[in-house]
Amino acid sequence: MTIKNTKWVLRNRPEGLVKDSDFELITEIMPEIQEDEILIENLFLSFDPTQRTWLNDMPGYLPPVQIGEVVRSGGMGRVLESNNPEYKVGDLAFGFVGWQSHCITKPTGDERFRVIPDILPIPTMLNVMGTTGITAYYGLVELGNPQPGETVLVSGAAGATGSVAVQIAKFKGCHVIGIAGGAEKCAWLKELGVDDVIDYKNSNVAEELPKLAKNGIDIYFDNVGGDILETVLFCININARILLCGGISSGYDANRLPAGPRNLFSLIIKRATMQGFLVLDYIPQSQKALEEIATWVMEGKLKHREDVQEGIENCPQTLNRLFTGENKGKQLLKI
Ligand SMILES: NC(=O)c1ccc[n+]([C@@H]2O[C@H](COP(=O)([O-])OP(=O)(O)OC[C@H]3O[C@@H](n4cnc5c(N)ncnc54)[C@H](OP(=O)(O)O)[C@@H]3O)[C@@H](O)[C@H]2O)c1
Fold first, then answer.
1. Which of 46, 140, 221, 228 is such that its CA lies 20 to 30 A from the CA of 206?
2. Are residue 203 and residue 229 in the same domain, yes or no?
3. Does the beta carbon of 227 lie inside 6 Å of ligand 1?
């Protein structure tokens, strides 16, 4: 069977929002699969802010995508052909599929694909039941150790990761404050049960936060970094835990380093900890989190929304939605 693959390869290092001209859309005939390889038909691509950092020529936790390479992204596909005993035709598989309609992979080591049970809709599996849910769960529950009555602040709160983190914090009996951009996202946070919200695009966080966090902040789940992190450091309590999940305001889309918070001394005064973490380290042990998340989802307790764009030709614009804030929930693209 002749299979054609349509793929986006990187042509230039982008500056700021990406442009179609930073890439090239190519169609090619797929080769035959070799020993231990599988051929996957990609169904949904996951869009994550970190993908933008992989397009920069800067050191990171994964090597930069090289000029001429397919743009790296997670996603879910169906196994079409298999020469690997661990995967059978028809399996749903999650892994680094890339911005393309098909991929051939020898799934070992970092290239491993997880076979996903076909029980919930794929968008749900890529959102709360995927790395997004695992990130929020391990960041907040395992590292943050939230206690009833504590105040938890989440930035990027209406996004995919943030919206799971705020809800788990409520399940744990915390007072939860969410920061998000725009009235619609703030209204959604209230629907999720968030106690107080700050619309950072239409108000002054430095003025609003001390008014809302009268008892100080015990846990800050940080998705944005930058100025908001600096503001929060002025409001933390003794023994506060600051969980650095992401820093989307701090130059993901630029080939230069952002300014740092100037008040790290607050960590000393407040005997606080600031800890970065990467979901990749938690995926192998994610069973416990996924079981608990699945229960919350099945009970209708954990709400989630997915923003599904369509068409492989729309990959670049879909990535930009994460940086303009257009995405309403987990950003996906259906191929
Ligand atoms: N550590 C890990 O392993 C890990 C894993 C997954 C994700 N993350 C991080 O978690 C964060 C959220 O990722 P996600 O996949 O859940 O995406 P998301 O929150 O669904 O989408 C990104 C959101 O970031 C906000 N944003 C964009 N530019 C901003 C800016 N300059 N300042 C403030 N907010 C801005 C926008 O929301 P508004 O409309 O509210 O501005 C946008 O909707 C990212 O920083 C990501 O890198 C980390």
1. 140
2. yes
3. no
DSSP state of 88: -
d(CA 205, CA 154): 13
Does ligand 1 lie within 6 Å of residue 167's CB atom? no
pLDDT tens track for 106-164: 987 766 898 998 889 999 999 999 999 999 999 999 999 999 999 999 999 999 999 99
Say what the pTM is. 0.96
Both tokens of residue 61? 């936790």
On average, the pLDDT of the chain sits at 96
Within 10 angstroms of residue 41's Cβ, the number of other Cβ atoms is: 16
> How many CB atoms within 10 Å of residue 83?
14
302 lines ligand 1 (CB under 6 A): no
Q: Which atom of ligand 1 is nearest to the CA of 331?
A: 20
Contact predicate 309/321, CB 8 Å? yes
Q: Is 87 exposed, middle or buried (0-12, 13-18, 19+ CB in 10 A)?
A: buried
Return the ligand 1 atom nearest residue 47 CA.
15
Total count of domains within the chain: 2
The domain of 89 spans 4-126+305-334
Angle formed by the axes of helices 160-171 and 183-191, nearest 10°: 30
Is 289 domain-assigned?
no
Answer for the pair 210, 232: CB distance below 8 angstroms, yes or no.
no
9 pLDDT tier (thresholds 50, 70, 90): very high
Largest CA distance in the chain: 66
Same domain, 316 and 175: no
Cα(30) to ligand 1 centroid in Å equals 34
CA distance 179 to 177: 7
Q: Residue with the nearest Cα to atom 8 of ligand 1?
A: 246
Ligand 1 centre to CA of 90 (Å) is: 33
Same domain, 99 and 45: yes
